[in-house]
Write a structure and sequence with these properties.
By secondary structure, the chain is mainly beta. The protein contains no helices and 10 strands.
Length: about 110
């Protein structure tokens, strides 16, 4: 995946299309990314006993669900638009480069 934790991405399809956010987590086995404040889901949680420690609270919990990596695009910090990227080698290091302006993402 050419997207990393901490990158700013724009969602290009689905209910949250056009919204931007920071990548909080990668799910490489399912090709997914968790984007901050987007793809909010609700989960019904039962109260559970945790062996004398703080019990889990019951109710509906809202959380960010993963989005498939094909539905997000990286946002270039210089262009401020969602762009495609390429990989470039410099002295044995691979860096991601913006296809529009040529700016490095590292």
């Amino acid at each position: 995946m050419n997207i990393r934790k901490g990158d700013t991405v724009e969602i290009i399809s689905g209910n949250d299309a056009g919204r931007r956010g920071e990548v909080l987590q990668l799910v490489p086995d399912r090709h997914g990314v968790v984007v901050e404040g987007n793809n909010i889901r609700k989960k019904h949680q039962k109260q559970q006993e945790t062996g004398g420690q703080r019990p889990l609270t019951a109710g509906m919990i809202e959380f960010e669900a993963p989005i498939h990596v094909s539905n997000v695009m990286l946002v270039c910090p210089k262009c401020d638009i969602s762009v495609r990227t390429s990989m470039k080698r410099d002295q044995g290091k691979k860096t991601r480069v913006c296809k529009k302006c040529g700016t490095s993402f590292e």
